[in-house]
Amino acid sequence: TAHRGVTSIAPENTIPAYEESVKLGYYSAECDIQRTKDGVWVLLHNHTVDKRFCEYGPIKDVTFEEARKYSYKEGSNFWAYDDLKIPTLDEFLDVFVGTNTRPQIEIKAETYDTLHEVVEAVEKKGLVESSIVISFDLEQLRVIHELNSNIELWYLIDEITPENIAAAKAVGDNVWLSPNFDRNDQASIKLAIDANIGVSFWTVNTIEDAKMLYDMGVRYIETDAVCN
Q1: Looking at the predicted structure, is the pLDDT value of residue 119 above 80?
Q2: Are 115 and 34 in contact (CB under 8 A)?
Q3: Which of 32, 96, 138, 149 has the most CB within a 10 Å radius?
Q4: CA-to-CA distance for 144 and 8, rounded, in angstroms?
Q5: What pLDDT does 206 receive?
Q6: How far is residue 196 from each of residues 9, 104, 173, 189, measured CA to CA in Å?
Q7: 33, exposed or middle or buried, with CB in 10 Å at 0-12, 13-18, 19+?
Q8: pLDDT-based confidence at 228, cuts 50/70/90?
């Protein structure tokens, strides 16, 4: 998985970063989504806009029209892209229609009653079978599963424990674990493998770490490094 897109080539959570992930043949590409004041799902990791843009404040306090005018001040080669704007969820999904790269959507907004909008966006684009929705909030994944049980879900966690494995499995058959690589050792990794649950580690940025996981039987990682 390309973590926030191919961020070594283009700024994170931008359309060029995801277009690069398709060109390079990534298995999937991850984005972060939040809602603006007027209810538009946009791509942004932090709850405030000041890290990426020349403005300040929470994204939830500005309208989409206002956010769309924001100028990037940071990110790989941000100056090289004409008319670089904060993308919507729909624009993100459009990148993957008709491709072999899977869109991966991390829900950053603290919401439950608006998650149907995410499901509807995926359904509208015909991407139910290829999309992956991820969250640290297991209740959000339960809501998504109830809305459409065919969408694959990944439960973001720090350490793999028997309790986390059981909680993920209780949601449904298509729920994976997505653990923090730095917070796990070979013993905890083996717990997931022995439990026969899908697992994808974040964020793995060296060949040595990727090889260690591969040798243990892990086949999915999230990375900031360019993989081709």
Answers
A1: yes
A2: no
A3: 96
A4: 31
A5: 95
A6: 36, 22, 11, 11
A7: buried
A8: low
Residue 7: asked if its preceding bond is cis (omega within 30°), the reply is: no
Q: Using alpha carbons only, what angle is made at residue 54 by residues 53 and 55, rounded to the nearest 5 degrees?
A: 90
d(CA 168, CA 139): 10
State the DSSP string of 103-160: EEEEE-S--STTHHHHHHHHHHTT-TTT-EEEES-HHHHHHHHHH-TTSEEEEEESS-
Give, in order, the Cα–Cα distances in Å from 133 to each of 53, 105, 106, 162.
26, 5, 6, 22
